[in-house]
Design brief:
Blueprint lengths: L11 H11 L16 E4 L2 E4 L2 H14 L9
Antiparallel strand pairs: 1-2
């Protein structure tokens, strides 16, 4: 089984969006490492960020566009 090269995406929201968009109906996506936190620290700033909310927002956007896994294309 050939494995694709890993994709490094430093922007956490974009990384979640890319993973969701690339998934097929049989895939499992794990968003790990910050599940209980609701802020993200960047350059000394504390910014609101909740992985759970981002997954729901991005998944809704993908499904609303008609391009989600299992959607007829």
């Amino acid at each position: 089984m050939e494995r694709p090269d890993p994709l490094v995406e430093p922007d956490r929201r974009r990384a979640i969006a890319v993973a969701l968009a690339a998934a097929s109906a049989a895939d499992l996506i794990v968003v790990a490492g910050r599940g209980h936190e609701t802020i993200q620290e960047m350059a000394g700033l504390q910014l609101p960020f909740d992985d759970r909310a981002v997954v729901v927002e991005e998944w809704s956007r993908i499904m609303d566009s008609g391009s989600g896994p299992g959607v007829e294309r």
